[in-house]
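Recap for those who missed Tuesday's class. We walked through two folding examples back to back. For each one, the amino acid string is listed first and its predicted structure tokens come directly after. Nothing is annotated here on purpose, so try labeling regions yourself before you check the end of the notes.
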Amino acid sequence: MNYNADSVRTSGFYSDKKWLKVRDYIRKRDGMTCQNCGDFTAKKYEVDHKTELNMENVRDWNIAYNPDNLWLLCFDCHKRKTVRDKQSNDRLFY
């Protein structure tokens, strides 16, 4: 299945209490500092799945909730990573 963030979003995953608890833990663990570029002054951060989350793995604890698969990124780094991931996935289907 191709990556589709909207499908995961509409599944209710990001409003689930378990996700919100893990998300808050990652923010504290990473000290509100981007783990890619080191920015600690960004206005917006995202807790990102290193292995992309999709409808096939959204219920797999090792991917969805495992702190080893999560890191805090500033908005700009998260946007760049998302574009790279999408381009990589698109190439798999050509």
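Example two. Treat it independently of the first, because the proteins are unrelated.
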Amino acid sequence: MSLMPLEEAYRRVLAGAEPVPRTERVGLRQASGRVLAEAVIAQRTQPGFNASAMDGYAIKAANAEAGSYLNVIGESAAGKGFSGRIEDSQTVRIFTGAPVPEGADTVLIQENAELVEASTIKVTEAPARGAHIRLAGVDFAEGQTLLSAGTLLSPGSVALAASGGHPELVVRAKPRVVVLSTGDELVLPGEPVGPHQIVASNTFGIAALCEAAGAEVIANELAPDDEAAIDAVFDQALGAKADIFVTIGGASVGDHDLVGKVFAEKGVDLDFWKVAMRPGKPFMAGARDGMRIAGLPGNPASSMVAATLFLAPLIRRLAGLADRPLFADGFLAEAMPANGSRADLVRSVIRPGPDGPLLSPLPRQDSSLLSVYAEADALLLRPVNANPAEAGEPCRFVPLS
């Protein structure tokens, strides 16, 4: 099977992917970052009364010429309004957010009033009629659509839903993901590490990436290089109706790389295997009974790069989130050599430049080095067969934050 061009692989991973049809009801404290499945309709009018926008005095504008005197007959505060009515030559002390008393049509700000006696003020500057009053319904009215289905819920939109009278919201369910790391050499963090073993770092990095992209990781498993063990986790994913089954390792060519063999025996429709990119070449994509398959390479940086380019966008699509451009535009901070027959994703750091982001490659690029990946801000793309490039030339990159 020939190597799949990077951008073609990206298109094929996303081809036919639609948001999962499941929905769930969540409380407002769990709603931020979720995708709304049903429109939010206002259950009330906001504000529900004419409210003062400033601290001052509620007045009748016709009785408040500069130099006039008004008798203070009470007070209106937020949550405790004045229950009477203002008549000519009367006023009520009022505070921001408080209900405007019946009979008043204007708020005189306190800076334009002089307290001459305990219950008398002098108007020093007359306001325009209607000044400093927020009319009932100026924010929204009962029955109004506040948020449309498909909205990505931000903190502001959660606050709007709360103000509209909704303690819970119906959101799209998160895509369900099962992650399987394979290899006899793997042990969990904190366990004794034998002379031929390594810690299963990818298990946790890929799960974190899935959750950051909008998924629910329903299982995060380790399996030895054993067909029966891999087969059992595959069946577990099918039985749990996972939307995506992610494997880490076992996707290269070798006697101990069994994932591809299990996929074939399980009837996985393999779309492609191996992408013309470095790192991350041994990535595979397929499906079985509606469950998407993403086979990631075992090397730590290779796994994270492939997951960033292909798995995270797939999760976002299934979660109902808007697609993001695969690449952003920037400029080289230093000269780069010619590139070969695979797209090179160079772990790099970003700094501001006069015309846009400047990309500086990190000095070590070995695909096994997690410390380099963790330090990187971006994956700088060197296209297939790219010519040497000078500092300052345009480039494309994948942001990592």
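Answers for example two:
The CA atoms of residues 26 and 220 lie 24 Å apart.
The first strand starts at residue 23 and ends at 27.
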